[in-house]
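Example 3.2
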Amino acid sequence: MLNDRGSCLALFEDCILFLLGKAYQKAQGIYKTHLAPYALTPMQFLVLEALFEDEGISAVDLGKRLLLDNATLSGILGRLADGGWITKSPDSEDRRLLRLTLTPKAKESRDALMREGDRAHAAVLREFRMEERLLLERLLRDFQK
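Structure, written as tokens:
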């Protein structure tokens, strides 16, 4: 329960920060379980998913699309490259830009990865009725603004 200043009055279990954190941990755990056979983290999967939609995008544009800072994105891209999922190459016209392409491994795994992503998404939302899912999605989108 919150007071009029937005601070937690009662137990920490009622604090919005605690509740959001626990929900995040649960969702991440579900995704990690589904992605474990591929040795991918949820964020690495998110990057691959974006590349499945727009292969060849620059790292700068990908960071903007996913709202990731340069340092975070750089680490994710490095691990994906080390894992054989992507290649990074300088843009032919602007060598300051990195172009991101999928490797054959990523392309061959695309359908299976997308199925696992769909299964994880469904598992996260399994306990909610359709109206609750829609409300949750709307609230989370509004909260980002």
